[in-house]
Amino acid sequence: MKSFSVRLLVYTPLTLLLSTVCLLADSSVVERRYPGISIAGNAGNSYVIDYVDTISSVNSWLVFTNITLPTSPYILIDATAPSLQRFYRSTNVSLAIQNYLGLTISGDPGSTNLIQYSEIAANNWITLTNIVLPYSPYLFIDPILEPSSRRTYRAEDVARLPKLSNIPSRLAQVGVPFSFQIVADSYLPITQYDASGLPQGLVVDNATGLISGTPSIAGTNVITFSASNASGTTSATGTFSFRNSLATELVAVPAGIFTMGSPETESGRSANEGPQTQIAITHSFMIGKYEVSQAEYQAVVGTNPAFFQGDTQRPIEEVSWQDATNFCALLTARDRQSGHISATAFYRLPTEAEWEYAARAGSSSAYTFGDASTSLGDYAWFQDNASGMPHEVGAKQPNAWGLYDVCGNIWEFCSDWLGVYPGGFIVDPVGPTDGTLKVMRGGSWYSEPRACRSAVRQGLPASVRYGDVGFRIVLYVP
User: Fold this and answer.
1) What is the Cα–Cα distance from 364 to 454, expressed in whole angstroms?
2) Distance between alpha carbon 447 and the CA centroid of its chain, in Å?
3) Predicted confidence band of residue 101 (pLDDT cuts 50, 70, 90)
4) Contact 205/233 with Cβ under 8 angstroms?
5) By three-state DSSP, how is residue 373 classified?
6) pTM here?
7) 294 to 1, 288, 313: CA distances (angstroms)
8) What DSSP string runs through 425-452?
9) Mean pLDDT of all residues belonging to the chain
10) Hey, which residues does 185 pair with through a beta bridge?
11) CA-to-CA distance for 359 and 348, rounded, in angstroms?
């Protein structure tokens, strides 16, 4: 059979490291492509495989190995190949090259490891094989991987400690039944769950990990959660916060008169900010000191739809105007039932006039703090300082009436349909009777400075959700 050489495809080495928690040591997987030489010849015969690393060296072949074929065809992995072109040849045998993913596994020699993979864009892990590490590091080749496949890998020690997967920061209401399930991932059976620091009224079932009961005292409690298996115990801390009401802290805003909209001379102004209109707010009202947080939304509605997960003190976003008004209705029902508010009081979104009146806090400048955008970073998360995401509510300076994030962080829905200002003088306006867009105010983490001015108006259909739109609430008391 005629001998021939095959040019190896060139790949940039991959250095994806996926670490896992193990009993005696950390196991890790480093992923890299290796050439696999498919040798088709006579089983039992011996063949010399030569190689060169550059085409210019074809007159100086080096011996890669001398192999006796156990079967035919037989795959031989070249774990020594650099990230360069490599060529192979032999005589009286057919060679073909296919690239395989080699997994360098580092862990505790003698430990049993599950080698698992997940296809790109899939969320599930599939066990490829179960190996006992003979030494560390150890090279394992994925033998069934097609060249076009895309996988990520991890090594899991079957004797590892449990992993606690849902350590919480939860908010709930005093006097309302509460439950939380401790979740632990373990290959060995869980022998016990525990939770220390639980407030009065809550207990943990050590066999199932279910925490349940009715909290009776308001406050924040630091809880140590734990799960045990035959290898030992894993612990982590979280918080349970209980309030008499799940409403955000409210600020009293006095009745008064102000000018709504912006003058034509204001820098960055849009046409829908005029004509300026004199507004009389004849009633005092209570408005949220902060934007509604993810923790508050989840405690009331039962879900957290926010795109930016990971810190439940960030404002809720990815909610529509309909979602916001539903939150207000649910919160009203809760607080009426608990006696926190009267049977005629209710939570709602602010009117557009109430929102701008509270945001201005007596000012008539472009921003709640003045006309110069150079100070915006002290009061707002916006395009220049937010790093592409919303931040914890109340982290910047408040306006003169104690309201936080009235510029930046997230746009805030108002109750009104977006319409045209009438000009002149109006008492307690509530906006048009119908329309296509619901008003949103204040700018967001994505906004340029001009969009964080007190007069800026935008609109969104009532059913649409975005990752930079949320709301704050008003408590109406007749």
Assistant:
1) 9
2) 21
3) confident
4) no
5) helix
6) 0.74
7) 70, 14, 6
8) EEES----S--S-EEEES--TT--GGGG
9) 88
10) 163
11) 17
| Matching residue, tokens 């920061």 | 169
Tokens of 79: 């774990």
Q: What number is the average pLDDT over the span 372-394?
A: 97
Q: Which helix (H) or strand (E) holds 317?
A: none
Tokens of 403: 């309201």
Q: Which domains does the chain have, with CATH numbers?
A: 6-157 (no CATH), 163-243 (2.60.40.10), 250-476 (3.90.1580.10)
The answer to whether 443 touches 315, Cβ cutoff 8 Å, is: no
Contact by Cβ (8 Å): 396, 290: no
Q: Which amino acid is at 453?
A: R
Q: Answer positive or negative: Cα dihedral of 201, 177, 344, 437.
A: positive
Q: What's the distance, Cα to Cα, between the start and end of the chain in Å?
A: 97
Q: Can you tell me which residue has the tokens 């931040």?
A: 391
- The pLDDT tens digits for 112-149 are 888 888 876 667 888 888 888 898 888 888 766 554 55
- Identify which of 295, 249, 214 has the alpha carbon closest to the alpha carbon of residue 475: 249
DSSP letter at 172 equals: E
Q: Report which secondary-structure segment, H or E, holds 334.
A: helix 321-338
Rounded CA separation 233/229 (Å)? 7
Q: What per-residue confidence (pLDDT) applies to 7?
A: 29
**Contact indicator for 263, 277 with CB cutoff of 8 Å:** no
Return d(Cα 252, Cα 289) in angstroms, integer. 9
- The Cα 189–Cα 227 span in angstroms is 10
Neighbouring C-beta atoms of residue 284, cutoff 10 Å: 11
Helix, strand and coil in the chain, % to nearest 5: 10, 35, 50
Q: Tell me how far the alpha carbon of residue 11 is from its chain's centroid.
A: 32
Q: Are 172 and 241 in contact (CB under 8 A)?
A: yes
The residue written with tokens 């207000």 in the block is 328
Measured CA to CA, the distance from residue 458 to residue 449 in angstroms comes to: 15
Please tell me whether residue 473 adopts helix, strand or coil conformation.
coil
Query: Tokens 């003088």 label which residue?
Result: 425
Q: Indicate the pairing of strand 277-281 with strand 424-427.
A: parallel
> Looking at this protein, which amino acid is placed at residue 362?
G
H or E, element range at 10: none
What SS3 class is residue 273?
A: helix
Q: For 55-67, give one letter per residue: b (16+ CB within 10 A) or e.
A: eeeeeebeebeeb
d(CA 43, CA 199): 72
